[in-house]
Specification:
This protein is an alpha+beta fold. 22% of the residues lie in helices and 17% in strands. The longest helix is centred in the N-terminal third of the chain and has 19 residues, at 94-112. This is Deferrochelatase. Keywords: Heme, Iron, Lyase, Membrane, Metal-binding, Oxidoreductase, Peroxidase, Signal, Transmembrane, Transmembrane helix. It catalyses: heme b + 2 H(+) = protoporphyrin IX + Fe(2+).
Amino acid sequence: MEDLNTADSLLNKRLSRREMLKIAGVGGIGLLLGGGGAYGALAVKETLAKNSAPSKGDASGSRVGFYGEHQAGIITPAQHFLSFASFDLTTSSLADVRQLFQSWTEAAAAMTSGDLIGNSNNNLNLPPSDTGETAGLSPSKLTITFGVGPSFFDNRFGLAGKRPTTFGELPKFRGDALQTEWCGGDIGVQVCADDLQVAFHAVRNLARIARGTAVLRWMQDGFQRTGPADPSNGTPRNLMGFKDGTGNPDIADAQAMKEIVWAGSGDGAAWMKGGSYLVARRIRMRIEIWDRSTLDDQERTFGRHRDTGAPLGMRDEFAPLDLNAKNTAGEPALPMNSHSRLAHMDGATKILRRAYSYTGGMDAKTGQLDAGLFFISYQRDIQKQFIPMQQILAASDKLNEYIVHVGSAAFACFPGTRPGGYIGETLF
């Protein structure tokens, strides 16, 4: 069975540039846009051999290996659906937290293999060890990526001294209208899959295993266009109709990933080597206002042509941005406050974007659509990469007329683990 988890396996695949963009992720709007008791012990009785063997529901290429140097779901090809969950711990025992991550690791290894959790007992007097809605389904490229928030390093568990030196709560940026129900969390879990039922099943069962140790704080589902909907496999579009993810770095470039994404042992916490820092931002789009804007205004907002995704005045979607280019009127071809120009900065500071569109239905207070972008980015250092970019965008981006940031969180995502180990063991 092919394992898509490691960078080596990605480098060994011969992919077109378009495929690389899909691997790198949907992209934001340019930049942004122990407590299971008896059940916990029963639910995660999964053998390592079961994880490494083909699963009953597996189809060729539908499994992403769970184990590896890095966690899957960071430079993994972007799947069609997202279920992101933030948890708060309800225990003050480090032993409980360690047991939770051990149980979650075994459960995640089983689910990403396409197996149900536990022994699927038929005892009518006990709850089943798995909720069962994915029985017979393929793994659907399921990935489960775990991280801990800044609040994890308070005084509850004696780990304050292990908090990475540059890792803390994100500042409030200009224009933020943050809602507490979409912010923070002790633990963040990014679940992605090509089937939403498979993704939701994973979050549901992780929450079930965590009972008595952690509770859900908030949860967001997301989507992008599926493969069958776009056989050409072009760059996905966001809900504003523009291609999204063109400028992501090439994840097949191991050196670039080392510089941009993966934390090193000297980056403030030796236990984070091989991990990455995740930023999550819930960005609501003022869709009704955007839909009444002229095409010229929309294109000048992004600095790109809507049809092709090319920089204004150019034809190739992947043409490099020319910040000195002029239009026929002698003005900058890319407006000075356009999103693509500002997000580009000096061209040297980069992040890896992995975002999904979302809809929360209708806002009952306004009668308008509650929809937008759930932005996720991975970077080696949030302070040096994400924060400077977002400060520039928050101050001057023309796109701010049409969006508002309502959610914000940051998580330190652990390095990967080996069979027999568990996620987070380098910290615990």
